[in-house]
Amino acid sequence: MTITDKSIVNDTEIQPLGSRVLVRVLEEPTVTSSGIIIPDTAKEKPQRGEVVAIGDDEELIKVVPGDVVLYPKYSGTELSIGGADHLVLDATDLIAVVRKPAA
User: Fold this and answer.
1) In this predicted model, what pLDDT tens digit does every residue of 46-86 receive, in sequence order?
2) Residue 85's closest CA among 41, 55, 45?
3) Domains in the chain and their CATH numbers?
4) What angle do CA 5, 18, 85 make, to 5 degrees?
C-alpha cells in the first residue's frame, strides 16, 4: 500500500515528491486573549500548518492529510496556491503533530 495524497486547487493537482509534505499555513490569532490587537509588524512568522498533501516515501512520512503540524520558522519553500499561503517541507523538518486532548 502506498501512502499518497494529492491536493487539488483551482483544477491543478499538486503532489509532493519523495519525502516532502505540502502544508497550508495557519494564521495565528491577531488579538490576544486579553483583547490586545497585534499589528502586522509585530507578528511572528507562523510555525503551524495543516498537512494538505504528502509524498510517496512511506518510511519518512509519519503524517496524513488533515494533521496540524509544527515546523521551524524559516524552513521550506513558500507557495501561494488559490490565494492561501503554503509551504513544501521535507518530512524531517516537521517538529510535531498537534492533537487536541480527548474530552
Assistant:
1) 789 999 999 998 888 999 999 999 999 889 999 888 888 99
2) 45
3) 13-27+39-97 (2.30.33.40)
4) 60
